[in-house]
Design brief:
By secondary structure, the chain is of the alpha+beta class. The protein has twelve helices and ten strands. It starts with a helix and ends with a strand.
C-alpha cells in the first residue's frame, strides 16, 4: 500500500478498479491479474461483494436468533414472577390458602402473556436488525444511500404524525400486557365501559357488558383500570334493620347465617377467609345499615352476594328481625277550636307506611 501511495498513477488505477476504499480481496485480485482494472471489477462483483453480502446476512441471522432468545427470557422473568413470592404476598394480606388463587401449577395466563409479549418485542427487534442489514447490503451494491435515508426519514415523520393515535394505542397496550393490568375473563371497569374482557390486543380491548353490549376500547384512551377479578375479590352485603332491633343479636345472626352458607359444599372452595361483620355502616331515614364482607376467589363474589341476601332474608324473618320499609310520620291539623280538638290532634301523630 505504501508503494501504491507513492505512485499517483497506480493509485488512481487501483481506485478505478476497487474504489476509494479497496478491500483486501480486491487489492489481491488487482495484483494477481497484472493490474487489469476490468477483470478486477468483474471479480469484485462476482466474489468480493457477494461474500460481504453473505457475511452481512449471516451476522443478521445470528443476531436475530440471539436477540429473540434473550428477549423472550427477559420478558418471561419480568412477566411471570416467582410463584413463591406471590404466595407470600397473599399471606401477608391475610389469605391463608394462597394455592387456591395461584394454583398448584404455573399460571397458564402468565405463560401465555409472556409468550405474546416476547413475540411482539422479538418481532420488533428482528425488523430493526434486518432493516439495518438491508441498508448495509444496498450500500454494498453501490447505491447512494443519502437520498434513500432522507426519503425514508421524511416518510417516517409523515407516518408518525398521521398515526399518533395508533402508536399511542400500541404502546399503551404493550405496557398493559407487561404490567398484567387485566386479562381475558377478568371483569374490569375502564370508565364508561364495564364488562368481561373477551379479547386483548396491542391496539384495543374488547369487553362484553352485562347487557350483552360489546365495547371496543382503544388502549390509548384508557385512563384508569378497575379490575374486579384479580387475585381475590370481596362479596360485600349491606342489610337494613329497624331501629328497635337488637344490634348484637343481628350481628350474631348475620355471622352464623353467613358461616353456614360459606361452609356448604357449593361455596367452600370459593371462600378464602372467615366472613366478617363490620357493623353499623349508616343510620338512615328508615333503618340501620349493617355491613359484612367475605373474601372470595375472583369472579365469584356476585353470585355469593345474591345467595347471602336470600339466606339473610330467611334468617331475619325466622328470628323476627324486621327489614324496614320507608316510613313517615304525618301530623293532622283540623278546623276545630284551637284550644281543644286541634291541640289534641296535634299531640297524637299518626304513622303510615
Amino acid at each position: 500500500m505504501l508503494a501504491l501511495a507513492a505512485t499517483p498513477g497506480l493509485t488512481e488505477t487501483l481506485e478505478d478498479g476497487c474504489g476509494q476504499d479497496p478491500s483486501f480481496i480486491c487489492e489481491r485480485v488487482y495484483e494477481l491479474t497484472g493490474e487489469n482494472v476490468g477483470l478486477t471489477q468483474v471479480v469484485d462483483w462476482l466474489l468480493n461483494r457477494p461474500l460481504t453480502i453473505l457475511l452481512i446476512v449471516l451476522v443478521a441471522w445470528i443476531a436475530t436468533r440471539v436477540a429473540r432468545r434473550y428477549v423472550r427470557r427477559g420478558v418471561r422473568q419480568l412477566v411471570a414472577p416467582d410463584r413463591t413470592a406471590t404466595a407470600r404476598r397473599l399471606q401477608r394480606i391475610g389469605i391463608d390458602r394462597p394455592e387456591t388463587i395461584i394454583g398448584a401449577q404455573a399460571d397458564p395466563r402468565r405463560n401465555s402473556r409472556a409468550t405474546s409479549i416476547g413475540n411482539v418485542v422479538g418481532s420488533t427487534v428482528t425488523v430493526l436488525i434486518w432493516t439495518v442489514a438491508t441498508i448495509l447490503i444496498i450500500g454494498e451494491l453501490g447505491f447512494d444511500l443519502g437520498p434513500f435515508i432522507a426519503g425514508a426519514g421524511i416518510a417516517g415523520v409523515a407516518l408518525g404524525f398521521g398515526a399518533q393515535s395508533l402508536v399511542k394505542d400500541c404502546i399503551a397496550g404493550l405496557f398493559m400486557l407487561i404490567e398484567d393490568q387485566y386479562g381475558i375473563g377478568d371483569i374490569v371497569d375502564l370508565g364508561e365501559a364495564i364488562g368481561e374482557v373477551e379479547e386483548v390486543t396491542l391496539r384495543t380491548t374488547v369487553l362484553r357488558g352485562l347487557d350483552g353490549t360489546v365495547w371496543h376500547v382503544p388502549n390509548g384512551e384508557v385512563q384508569r383500570v378497575g379490575n374486579k377479578s384479580q387475585l381475590w375479590s370481596v362479596a360485600l352485603v349491606d342489610v337494613d334493620v329497624a331501629y328497635d332491633s337488637d344490634l348484637a343479636e343481628t350481628r350474631e345472626l348475620m355471622l352464623s347465617t353467613t358461616r353456614e352458607l360459606c361452609g356448604s359444599e357449593q361455596w367452600m372452595g370459593d371462600v378464602l377467609e372467615e366472613p366478617t361483620v363490620l357493623g353499623v355502616e349508616a343510620l338512615g331515614a328508615d333503618g340501620i345499615t349493617m355491613r359484612m364482607i367475605v373474601k372470595t376467589t375472583p369472579g365469584s363474589q356476585w353470585a355469593l352476594q345474591r345467595q347471602l341476601r336470600e339466606a339473610l332474608k330467611a334468617s331475619f324473618d325466622e328470628a323476627g328481625i324486621e327489614i324496614p320499609f320507608p316510613q313517615r310520620t304525618v301530623w293532622m291539623r283540623g278546623e276545630a277550636d284551637p284550644g281543644t280538638a286541634e291541640s289534641a290532634e296535634a299531640s297524637n301523630p299518626t304513622s303510615s307506611g
